[in-house]
Protein backbone atom coordinates (compact mmCIF):
# COMPACT_ATOMS: atom_id res chain seq x y z
CA UNK A 1 0.00 0.00 0.00
CA UNK A 2 1.17 3.59 -0.68
CA UNK A 3 1.25 6.39 1.86
CA UNK A 4 -2.32 7.41 1.10
CA UNK A 5 -3.52 3.85 1.56
CA UNK A 6 -1.63 3.50 4.84
CA UNK A 7 -3.35 6.60 6.18
CA UNK A 8 -6.69 5.31 4.98
CA UNK A 9 -6.08 1.94 6.70
CA UNK A 10 -5.07 3.71 9.90
CA UNK A 11 -8.23 5.80 9.74
CA UNK A 12 -10.27 2.63 9.16
CA UNK A 13 -8.73 0.87 12.20
CA UNK A 14 -9.34 3.95 14.35
CA UNK A 15 -12.95 3.93 13.18
CA UNK A 16 -13.19 0.26 14.18
CA UNK A 17 -11.68 1.06 17.60
CA UNK A 18 -14.34 3.71 18.06
CA UNK A 19 -17.11 1.25 17.27
CA UNK A 20 -15.66 -1.20 19.83
CA UNK A 21 -16.27 1.27 22.65
CA UNK A 22 -19.99 0.86 22.26
CA UNK A 23 -20.56 -2.77 21.40
CA UNK A 24 -24.21 -2.52 22.57
CA UNK A 25 -25.02 -0.82 19.31
CA UNK A 26 -26.43 -2.85 16.44
CA UNK A 27 -23.63 -4.98 14.93
CA UNK A 28 -22.47 -3.88 11.48
CA UNK A 29 -22.55 -6.36 8.64
CA UNK A 30 -19.84 -6.86 6.04
CA UNK A 31 -21.38 -4.44 3.58
CA UNK A 32 -21.62 -1.69 6.19
CA UNK A 33 -18.00 -2.24 7.22
CA UNK A 34 -16.94 -2.15 3.57
CA UNK A 35 -18.78 1.10 3.05
CA UNK A 36 -17.00 2.65 6.05
CA UNK A 37 -13.66 1.57 4.59
CA UNK A 38 -14.49 2.99 1.15
CA UNK A 39 -15.75 6.25 2.65
CA UNK A 40 -12.51 6.62 4.60
CA UNK A 41 -10.46 6.18 1.41
CA UNK A 42 -9.61 2.50 1.05
CA UNK A 43 -9.93 1.04 -2.43
CA UNK A 44 -11.89 -2.10 -3.21
CA UNK A 45 -8.67 -4.09 -3.44
CA UNK A 46 -7.39 -2.69 -0.16
CA UNK A 47 -10.63 -3.56 1.57
CA UNK A 48 -10.36 -7.14 0.32
CA UNK A 49 -6.73 -7.23 1.52
CA UNK A 50 -7.72 -6.14 5.04
CA UNK A 51 -10.32 -8.88 5.26
CA UNK A 52 -7.83 -11.45 4.00
CA UNK A 53 -5.34 -10.24 6.59
CA UNK A 54 -8.00 -10.48 9.28
CA UNK A 55 -8.65 -14.12 8.38
CA UNK A 56 -4.90 -14.84 8.41
CA UNK A 57 -4.67 -13.45 11.95
CA UNK A 58 -7.52 -15.73 13.06
CA UNK A 59 -5.88 -18.73 11.37
CA UNK A 60 -2.56 -17.99 13.08
CA UNK A 61 -4.28 -17.47 16.42
CA UNK A 62 -6.10 -20.82 16.13
CA UNK A 63 -2.81 -22.60 15.49
CA UNK A 64 -1.21 -20.84 18.48
CA UNK A 65 -4.15 -21.90 20.67
CA UNK A 66 -3.65 -25.53 19.65
CA UNK A 67 0.04 -25.12 20.55
CA UNK A 68 -1.07 -23.75 23.96
CA UNK A 69 0.73 -20.48 23.22
CA UNK A 70 -2.16 -18.51 24.61
CA UNK A 71 -0.49 -15.12 25.03
CA UNK A 72 0.64 -14.91 21.37
CA UNK A 73 -2.75 -16.24 20.28
CA UNK A 74 -4.39 -13.43 22.23
CA UNK A 75 -2.32 -10.85 20.34
CA UNK A 76 -3.28 -12.37 16.96
CA UNK A 77 -6.95 -12.35 17.90
CA UNK A 78 -6.63 -8.67 18.89
CA UNK A 79 -5.14 -7.86 15.50
CA UNK A 80 -8.00 -9.63 13.78
CA UNK A 81 -10.50 -7.88 16.03
CA UNK A 82 -9.03 -4.49 15.18
CA UNK A 83 -9.80 -5.10 11.49
CA UNK A 84 -13.33 -6.35 12.15
CA UNK A 85 -14.74 -5.86 15.70
CA UNK A 86 -18.00 -7.57 14.66
CA UNK A 87 -16.52 -10.83 13.44
CA UNK A 88 -17.78 -13.64 15.68
CA UNK A 89 -14.59 -15.65 15.26
CA UNK A 90 -12.40 -12.77 16.46
CA UNK A 91 -14.62 -12.06 19.44
CA UNK A 92 -14.93 -15.69 20.44
CA UNK A 93 -11.17 -16.13 19.99
CA UNK A 94 -10.49 -13.25 22.39
CA UNK A 95 -12.82 -14.85 24.97
CA UNK A 96 -11.21 -18.27 24.48
CA UNK A 97 -7.61 -17.03 24.78
CA UNK A 98 -8.39 -14.94 27.86
CA UNK A 99 -10.19 -17.89 29.46
CA UNK A 100 -7.17 -20.16 28.91
CA UNK A 101 -4.76 -17.59 30.33
CA UNK A 102 -7.03 -17.19 33.37
CA UNK A 103 -7.08 -20.97 33.91
CA UNK A 104 -3.27 -21.02 33.94
CA UNK A 105 -2.60 -17.83 35.91
CA UNK A 106 -5.81 -17.19 37.87
CA UNK A 107 -5.48 -13.55 36.78
CA UNK A 108 -8.95 -12.12 37.32
CA UNK A 109 -8.47 -9.49 34.61
CA UNK A 110 -8.34 -12.21 31.95
CA UNK A 111 -11.42 -13.86 33.40
CA UNK A 112 -13.28 -10.55 33.29
CA UNK A 113 -12.23 -9.94 29.67
CA UNK A 114 -13.27 -13.46 28.69
CA UNK A 115 -16.73 -12.90 30.17
CA UNK A 116 -17.08 -9.49 28.45
CA UNK A 117 -16.13 -10.86 25.02
CA UNK A 118 -18.55 -13.77 25.47
CA UNK A 119 -21.37 -11.30 26.20
CA UNK A 120 -20.49 -9.46 23.00
CA UNK A 121 -20.23 -12.68 20.98
CA UNK A 122 -23.67 -13.84 22.15
CA UNK A 123 -25.16 -10.40 21.42
CA UNK A 124 -23.97 -10.76 17.84
CA UNK A 125 -24.88 -14.47 17.56
CA UNK A 126 -27.03 -15.77 20.46
CA UNK A 127 -26.84 -19.35 19.15
CA UNK A 128 -23.06 -19.44 18.60
CA UNK A 129 -22.32 -22.89 20.04
CA UNK A 130 -18.59 -22.43 20.93
CA UNK A 131 -19.43 -19.25 22.85
CA UNK A 132 -22.27 -20.96 24.70
CA UNK A 133 -20.01 -23.89 25.60
CA UNK A 134 -17.22 -21.60 26.79
CA UNK A 135 -19.69 -19.58 28.86
CA UNK A 136 -20.95 -22.80 30.51
CA UNK A 137 -17.37 -23.91 31.17
CA UNK A 138 -16.47 -20.58 32.78
CA UNK A 139 -19.58 -20.71 34.95
CA UNK A 140 -18.76 -24.25 36.09
CA UNK A 141 -15.15 -23.36 36.84
CA UNK A 142 -16.33 -20.31 38.77
CA UNK A 143 -18.61 -22.51 40.87
CA UNK A 144 -15.83 -25.07 41.33
CA UNK A 145 -13.43 -22.36 42.48
CA UNK A 146 -16.03 -20.97 44.86
CA UNK A 147 -16.64 -24.48 46.21
CA UNK A 148 -12.92 -25.08 46.60
CA UNK A 149 -12.57 -21.72 48.32
CA UNK A 150 -15.41 -22.55 50.70
CA UNK A 151 -13.92 -25.99 51.38
CA UNK A 152 -10.51 -24.43 51.94
CA UNK A 153 -12.01 -21.94 54.39
CA UNK A 154 -13.93 -24.75 56.09
CA UNK A 155 -10.76 -26.84 56.36
CA UNK A 156 -8.97 -23.82 57.76
CA UNK A 157 -11.71 -23.29 60.35
CA UNK A 158 -11.70 -26.99 61.25
CA UNK A 159 -7.91 -26.97 61.56
CA UNK A 160 -8.04 -23.82 63.70
CA UNK A 161 -10.78 -25.27 65.89
CA UNK A 162 -8.79 -28.50 66.22
CA UNK A 163 -5.69 -26.61 67.29
CA UNK A 164 -7.68 -24.57 69.80
CA UNK A 165 -9.33 -27.72 71.16
CA UNK A 166 -5.98 -29.49 71.35
CA UNK A 167 -4.41 -26.56 73.15
CA UNK A 168 -7.35 -26.42 75.54
CA UNK A 169 -7.23 -30.15 76.25
CA UNK A 170 -3.44 -30.11 76.51
CA UNK A 171 -3.54 -27.06 78.73
CA UNK A 172 -6.14 -28.70 80.95
CA UNK A 173 -4.12 -31.93 81.12
CA UNK A 174 -0.80 -30.21 81.85
CA UNK A 175 -2.44 -27.89 84.37
CA UNK A 176 -3.98 -30.87 86.14
CA UNK A 177 -0.62 -32.65 86.13
CA UNK A 178 1.34 -29.68 87.44
CA UNK A 179 -1.26 -29.08 90.15
CA UNK A 180 -1.09 -32.74 91.17
CA UNK A 181 2.70 -32.52 91.44
CA UNK A 182 2.48 -29.33 93.47
CA UNK A 183 0.04 -31.05 95.83
CA UNK A 184 2.50 -33.93 96.13
CA UNK A 185 5.26 -31.47 97.02
CA UNK A 186 2.99 -29.80 99.57
CA UNK A 187 2.21 -33.14 101.20
CA UNK A 188 5.91 -34.01 101.28
CA UNK A 189 6.69 -30.62 102.81
CA UNK A 190 4.12 -31.19 105.54
CA UNK A 191 5.60 -34.61 106.26
CA UNK A 192 9.16 -33.32 106.42
CA UNK A 193 8.05 -30.50 108.72
CA UNK A 194 6.36 -33.02 111.03
CA UNK A 195 9.41 -35.28 111.12
CA UNK A 196 11.62 -32.25 111.71
CA UNK A 197 9.43 -31.24 114.62
CA UNK A 198 9.69 -34.73 116.14
CA UNK A 199 13.46 -34.61 115.84
CA UNK A 200 13.49 -31.22 117.53
CA UNK A 201 11.29 -32.58 120.35
CA UNK A 202 13.65 -35.52 120.90
CA UNK A 203 16.59 -33.12 121.09
CA UNK A 204 14.79 -30.99 123.69
CA UNK A 205 13.93 -34.10 125.70
CA UNK A 206 17.54 -35.30 125.76
CA UNK A 207 18.77 -31.83 126.71
CA UNK A 208 16.38 -31.67 129.66
CA UNK A 209 17.73 -34.83 131.26
CA UNK A 210 20.47 -34.65 133.89
CA UNK A 211 21.73 -38.21 133.44
CA UNK A 212 24.52 -37.17 131.15
CA UNK A 213 27.74 -38.81 132.37
CA UNK A 214 30.18 -37.51 129.84
CA UNK A 215 31.41 -33.93 129.43
CA UNK A 216 31.81 -34.38 125.71
CA UNK A 217 28.21 -35.53 125.48
CA UNK A 218 27.07 -32.48 127.41
CA UNK A 219 28.99 -30.21 125.04
CA UNK A 220 27.45 -31.93 122.00
CA UNK A 221 23.96 -31.74 123.45
CA UNK A 222 24.48 -28.03 124.13
CA UNK A 223 25.58 -27.44 120.54
CA UNK A 224 22.74 -29.56 119.15
CA UNK A 225 20.21 -27.76 121.33
CA UNK A 226 21.52 -24.34 120.27
CA UNK A 227 21.33 -25.24 116.56
CA UNK A 228 17.91 -26.79 117.02
CA UNK A 229 16.59 -23.63 118.69
CA UNK A 230 18.02 -21.49 115.88
CA UNK A 231 16.33 -23.70 113.27
CA UNK A 232 13.03 -23.62 115.17
CA UNK A 233 13.20 -19.83 115.37
CA UNK A 234 13.80 -19.63 111.63
CA UNK A 235 10.83 -21.93 111.03
CA UNK A 236 8.63 -19.67 113.13
CA UNK A 237 9.75 -16.60 111.22
CA UNK A 238 9.52 -18.24 107.77
CA UNK A 239 6.69 -20.75 107.54
CA UNK A 240 7.25 -21.83 103.91
CA UNK A 241 9.82 -24.61 103.56
CA UNK A 242 10.81 -23.70 99.99
CA UNK A 243 11.54 -20.14 101.08
CA UNK A 244 13.76 -21.41 103.90
CA UNK A 245 15.58 -23.71 101.49
CA UNK A 246 16.69 -20.65 99.54
CA UNK A 247 18.40 -19.29 102.67
CA UNK A 248 22.05 -20.37 102.86
CA UNK A 249 22.18 -19.95 106.67
CA UNK A 250 19.22 -22.30 107.13
CA UNK A 251 20.80 -24.90 104.85
CA UNK A 252 24.12 -24.66 106.70
CA UNK A 253 22.40 -25.08 110.08
CA UNK A 254 20.61 -28.22 108.86
CA UNK A 255 23.91 -29.69 107.67
CA UNK A 256 25.61 -28.88 110.99
CA UNK A 257 22.73 -30.35 112.98
CA UNK A 258 22.82 -33.63 111.03
CA UNK A 259 26.60 -33.76 111.51
CA UNK A 260 26.40 -33.18 115.29
CA UNK A 261 23.66 -35.79 115.69
CA UNK A 262 25.76 -38.32 113.79
CA UNK A 263 28.70 -37.54 116.11
CA UNK A 264 26.47 -37.83 119.18
CA UNK A 265 25.33 -41.31 118.08
CA UNK A 266 28.96 -42.39 117.93
CA UNK A 267 29.98 -41.32 121.43
CA UNK A 268 26.81 -41.41 123.53
CA UNK A 269 26.75 -43.67 126.61
CA UNK A 270 23.14 -42.92 127.47
CA UNK A 271 21.52 -46.18 126.37
CA UNK A 272 18.02 -44.98 127.09
CA UNK A 273 18.41 -41.93 124.83
CA UNK A 274 20.32 -43.53 121.98
CA UNK A 275 17.31 -45.29 120.37
CA UNK A 276 15.31 -42.08 120.50
CA UNK A 277 17.86 -39.93 118.71
CA UNK A 278 18.71 -42.70 116.22
CA UNK A 279 15.03 -43.27 115.45
CA UNK A 280 14.32 -39.57 115.00
CA UNK A 281 17.34 -39.08 112.75
CA UNK A 282 16.55 -42.17 110.67
CA UNK A 283 12.98 -41.02 110.09
CA UNK A 284 14.33 -37.58 109.10
CA UNK A 285 16.76 -39.16 106.62
CA UNK A 286 14.07 -41.35 105.05
CA UNK A 287 11.59 -38.49 104.64
CA UNK A 288 14.32 -36.18 103.35
CA UNK A 289 15.17 -38.76 100.68
CA UNK A 290 11.50 -39.07 99.69
CA UNK A 291 11.09 -35.32 99.60
CA UNK A 292 14.17 -34.78 97.42
CA UNK A 293 12.99 -37.50 95.02
CA UNK A 294 9.62 -35.76 94.60
CA UNK A 295 11.39 -32.45 94.02
CA UNK A 296 13.69 -34.11 91.47
CA UNK A 297 10.75 -35.54 89.50
CA UNK A 298 9.00 -32.16 89.55
CA UNK A 299 12.09 -30.28 88.37
CA UNK A 300 12.62 -32.76 85.53
CA UNK A 301 8.97 -32.49 84.49
CA UNK A 302 8.91 -28.69 84.24
CA UNK A 303 12.05 -28.73 82.06
CA UNK A 304 10.43 -31.01 79.48
CA UNK A 305 8.52 -29.72 76.45
CA UNK A 306 5.90 -28.24 76.49
CA UNK A 307 6.11 -27.39 80.21
CA UNK A 308 9.42 -25.63 79.57
CA UNK A 309 7.44 -23.00 77.63
CA UNK A 310 5.56 -21.87 80.74
CA UNK A 311 8.58 -20.81 82.79
CA UNK A 312 7.89 -22.72 86.01
CA UNK A 313 10.60 -22.20 88.63
CA UNK A 314 12.54 -25.14 90.06
CA UNK A 315 11.93 -26.21 93.66
CA UNK A 316 14.82 -26.53 96.12
CA UNK A 317 16.24 -29.69 97.69
CA UNK A 318 16.82 -30.43 101.36
CA UNK A 319 20.54 -30.56 102.21
What does this structure look like?
The chain is mainly α and 319 residues long. It has two domains: 3-127, Alpha Horseshoe (Serine Threonine Protein Phosphatase 5, Tetratricopeptide repeat); 171-310, Four Helix Bundle (Hemerythrin (Met), subunit A) (Up-down Bundle), CATH 1.20.120. It has eleven helices and no strands. The protein has helices at 3-20, 30-40, 44-66, 70-83, 88-105, 108-124, 129-208, 215-237, 241-244, 248-267, 274-303. Helix 4 packs antiparallel against helix 5 (88-105). The longest helix is centred in the middle third of the chain and has 80 residues, at 129-208. The chain starts with a helix and ends in a 16-residue tail after the last helix. 24% of the residues are buried. The model has no long low-confidence stretch (mean pLDDT 77).
List the keywords.
single chain; mainly alpha; Serine Threonine Protein Phosphatase 5, Tetratricopeptide repeat; Four Helix Bundle (Hemerythrin (Met), subunit A); 81% helix; rod-shaped
- Distance separating the two termini: 109 Å
| Proportion of helical residues | over 70%
**How many strand elements?**
0
Order of helices and strands: HHHHHHHHHHH
Shape: rod-shaped
Largest sheet: none
Give the topology.
Blueprint: H1 3-20, H2 30-40, H3 44-66, H4 70-83, H5 88-105, H6 108-124, H7 129-208, H8 215-237, H9 241-244, H10 248-267, H11 274-303
Brief write-up:
This protein is mainly α and 319 residues long. The chain contains 11 helices and no strands.
Amino acid sequence: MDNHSDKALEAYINKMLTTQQNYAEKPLNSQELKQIALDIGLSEEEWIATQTQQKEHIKAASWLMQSQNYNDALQSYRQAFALNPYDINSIYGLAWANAKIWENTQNKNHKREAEEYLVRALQISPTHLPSLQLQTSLTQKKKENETLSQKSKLRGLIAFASVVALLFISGFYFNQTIQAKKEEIKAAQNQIENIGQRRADVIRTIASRNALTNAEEQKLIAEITKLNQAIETQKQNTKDLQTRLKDETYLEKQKQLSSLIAKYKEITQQKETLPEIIGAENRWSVEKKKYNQIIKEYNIYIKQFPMSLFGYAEENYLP
